[in-house]
Amino acid sequence: MQCEVCGRSIKGKTFKAIIEGARLVVCPDCALLGSMSWELKPSEQRKPRAKVHRPIKQKSRFVMKRQSPLEPTLELVADFGTRIRQAREANGFSHEDLGRRINEKISVIRKLESHKMKPDNKLAGKLQHALKIKLLVPPTRKKLPKELLATTPKAVTLGDLIGHRERSSEETK
Ligand SMILES: [Zn+2]
């Protein structure tokens, strides 16, 4: 067996290396010149392919579960900005004081109070705690269909559909 790079006869182990794009059988010395062994390549490709399939399926299933909540979701009150401002003033906090307490920027507090930004559940939770107010309330489901019937008798809105779905999924639980 001769090394395809240096031409010496190889005693013992031969190496398969990729050198400048060519697949060569080489001696141990010349194997060091190669960027990688071409024997490893096919098996390296096979392994990740087999592994990748399953996690993707599990992930999509997980996402679907999260879209139909098992526990009752809380809704943000419509007048959250007013509630935050009133509670902040009642406590004698400035924007800065409140920002420091909940570890948020003053600009965030201002946006919340002027309804330019909705707090996510985490932020709403912090505000509730700092100001001792309610920002997240259980959905008012009994009220919703009546309002929809009164204003738009036959139209089915997206909110209506979601409301029905949530209710039926809870009943089956
Ligand atoms: Zn060689």
Describe the secondary structure blueprint for this structure.
Elements: E1 15-19, E2 22-26, H1 28-31, E3 36-37, H2 40-67, E4 75-76, H3 80-90, H4 95-102, H5 106-113, H6 121-131, E5 136-137, H7 143-151, H8 158-172
Antiparallel strand pairs: 1-2, 1-3, 4-5
Structure description:
By secondary structure, this protein is mainly alpha-helical. The chain folds into three domains: 1-67, no CATH class; 75-137, lambda repressor-like DNA-binding domains (434 Repressor (Amino-terminal Domain), Orthogonal Bundle); 143-172, no CATH class. Helix content is 54%, strand content 9%. The protein has eight helices and five strands. The protein has helices at residues 28-31, 40-67, 80-90, 95-102, 106-113, 121-131, 143-151, 158-172; strands spanning 15-19, 22-26, 36-37, 75-76, 136-137. The strands form two sheets. It has a three-stranded antiparallel β-sheet. A hairpin with a 2-residue loop joins strand 1 and strand 2 (22-26). The longest helix has 28 residues, at 40-67. The termini are far apart. Residues 41-52, 56-61 and 63-69 have low confidence and may be disordered. It binds zinc ion. Zinc ion is lined by residues 3, 5-6, 8, 26-27, 29-30. The site of zinc ion (ZN) has 8 residues, from helix 1.
